[in-house]
């Protein structure tokens, strides 16, 4: 289900084409949250500006070919926000976090991870099964290329999906307050956070995992 969201500026008489220059508050229609709760996902159009999307794709096109295909390349696509200012602008985008909070009725969320999927690298699984940050509140797929480029799909962490998209996308994992790093053998990148001296059941803390 593809829907458009209504957004409202906290400043009056701001032209809609200038929304990205000002602090905005997204407002979800109650029916959208109902759709998410019933189906475990909600797709929304035009979340990411075209210019920013182009910067992200340029970074990925330059960076990822440096890594051999397979598990090493998948791990190289973990937490790209730490290496790319463009990816960071998307992953820490306050308007996206605001939507996530509304969907899950959360007052506070933290960035758990981002992960690049270049193709159908994973068989059917849920976010809880695929990643080592727990508990997750919600995930957000950002489509990078193709007809849906710039659109996003919110995913319930328990919702099992077929990861068979033909175009590349990034998944943002929003973690609940009190979330921890929990080693997970089903996560191909479960050891990724050990480079930051994190160990099993280590709590997620800002600035390593910023509040969003």
Write a structural description.
With 212 residues, this protein is of the alpha+beta class. The chain has one domain: Roll (Thiol Ester Dehydrase, Chain A), CATH 3.10.129.150. The protein has six helices and nine strands. It has helices spanning 30-39, 50-63, 71-76, 85-91, 94-104, 127-130; strands at 2-3, 6-9, 24-27, 41-44, 109-117, 133-143, 152-155, 169-181, 202-203. The strands form two sheets. Strands 1, 4, 5, 6, 7, 8 and 9 form a seven-stranded mixed sheet that branches. Helix 2 packs across helix 4 (85-91). The longest helix is centred in the N-terminal third of the chain and has 14 residues, at 50-63. It starts with a strand and ends in a 9-residue tail after the last strand. Residues 1-23 have low confidence and may be disordered.
User: Helix/strand-derived class?
Assistant: alpha+beta
Strand content: 25-35%
Number of helices: 6
Number of domains: 1
C-alpha-based Rg, rounded:
17 Å
The largest sheet, given as strand count, sense and whether it forms a barrel, is:
7 strands, mixed
CATH topology: Thiol Ester Dehydrase, Chain A
Give the averaged pLDDT, no decimals: 87
